[in-house]
Automatic annotation (TrEMBL):
InterPro entries: MCP (IPR002067), MCP_dom_sf (IPR023395), MCP_transmembrane (IPR018108)
Membrane topology: Multi-pass membrane protein
Compartment(s): Membrane
Each Solcar repeat, start to end: 52-143, 159-245, 254-344
Top-level taxon: Eukaryota
Pfam families given in the database record: Mito_carr
Protein known as: Mitochondrial substrate carrier family protein B
Organism lineage string: Eukaryota, Viridiplantae, Streptophyta, Embryophyta, Tracheophyta
Keyword annotations from UniProtKB, A to Z: Membrane, Repeat, Transmembrane, Transport
UniProt similarity note: Belongs to the mitochondrial carrier (TC 2.A.29) family.
Primary subcellular site in the record, as a coarse category: membrane
Signal peptide positions on this chain: none
Length: 352
């Protein structure tokens, strides 16, 4: 997540909107870590960033995020495969599952390219998701500032924090709802093994609408929206606490290193707390896929109860290890790509 997808904007409103919603809506550690890093970079070099227009910032962040997602796609697919293993499999056989064994199975049975199943949808998801997040946050921010009476008053920490959390959460909910069908299609494509039921993005959309109706594209949305608030709160509080503690102990350390480290750790904390919701979301997205019988018939909380009863508490964290392994390469790739694109875009003369 993802991831999902607000790495891009560095202007204050856009950055917070794109990033607050992403980790929350898609459970992505990488997005959460990159979010915090880029937000800190924005605070440290606001004048430099102001040289880029909003469209350029969105473009740079979107390309950086898409490239990072592509590089870490094999781990992302392994995460999804592990998350959905307990749906139609004998639970006793799952104890033998391992990352290396599953990766070998994919290579031998599906081929090397199969590690990138569904990645094209992930890339296609980023631009509309980032754009909706950005503009939704700006609208919500204006409404909240008007409601709180702080349009022309800066420095009100409590009011600013309220605007950030509520506005970011509402923007995340809006963007996740608007682009959710793409996320569901990505899950269904990535979860396919040897039997190919959906032959591509358009075929998946057409098949789902024909067999399950339009609402079939929104299966599992409740779990996504439920995770928005906790993800923002945990990621923000852990990041700020870690950064303050680090800087109090080692004030001369590189800001870049501190931001990357604290961003990654805050992303891990946030994703660990909300991973069960992400797992339930993935499984509910696959309900009825390919004509299979439904497994979870009692709603979101019934799905939680069913998984814990049949697979134990460990079942709620099935697939979290490959998710963790994405952290350092994912955040690092986002940073390197974003900074490179930013320098290139700054060299392009403005038409204004």
């Amino acid at each position: 997540m993802n991831m999902e997808a607000r790495v891009g904007a560095v202007v204050e409103g856009g950055q917070r909107a794109l990033n607050s919603a992403a980790a929350a809506a898609h459970g992505s550690i990488v997005d959460a870590g990159a979010r915090k890093f880029l937000q800190q970079q924005h605070n440290n070099s606001q004048q430099q960033h102001s040289q880029l227009g909003i469209i350029q910032q969105l473009l740079a962040g979107g390309v950086a995020g898409a490239f990072s997602k592509t590089c870490t796609a094999p781990l992302a697919r392994l995460t999804i495969l592990f998350q959905v293993q307990g749906m139609h499999s004998d639970v006793t056989a799952l104890s033998k599952a391992s990352i290396w064994r599953e990766a070998s199975r994919v290579m031998n049975e599906e081929g090397f390219r199969a590690f990138w199943k569904g990645n094209l949808v992930t890339i296609a998801h980023r631009l509309p998701y980032s754009s909706v997040s950005f503009y939704a946050y700006e609208r919500y921010k204006s409404l909240l500032q008007s409601a709180l009476g702080v349009e022309n008053h800066r420095g009100n920490g409590t009011a600013d924090l309220a605007v950030h959390f509520i506005g970011g959460g509402m923007a995340g909910i809006t963007a996740a709802s608007a682009t959710y069908p793409l996320d569901l299609v990505r899950t269904r494509l990535a979860a396919q093994r040897n039997t190919i039921y959906y032959r591509g993005i358009l075929h998946a959309f057409h098949t789902i609408c024909r067999e399950e109706g339009l609402l079939g594209l929104y299966k599992g949305l409740g779990a996504t929206l439920l995770g928005v608030g906790p993800s923002i709160a945990i990621s923000f509080s852990v990041y700020e606490s870690l950064r303050s503690f680090w800087q109090s102990k080692r004030p001369n350390d590189s800001t870049v290193m501190v931001s990357l480290a604290c961003g990654s750790l805050s992303g891990i904390a946030s994703s660990t707390a909300t991973f069960p919701l992400d797992l339930v979301r993935r499984r509910m997205q696959l309900e009825g896929a390919g004509g299979r019988a439904r497994v979870y018939t009692t709603g979101l909380f019934g799905a939680f109860s069913h998984i814990i009863k049949t697979e134990g508490l460990r079942g709620m964290y099935r697939g979290i290890l490959p998710e963790y392994y994405k952290v350092v390469p994912g955040v690092g790739i986002v940073f390197m790509t974003y900074e490179t694109l930013k320098m290139l875009l700054q060299c392009i003369p403005s038409s204004n």
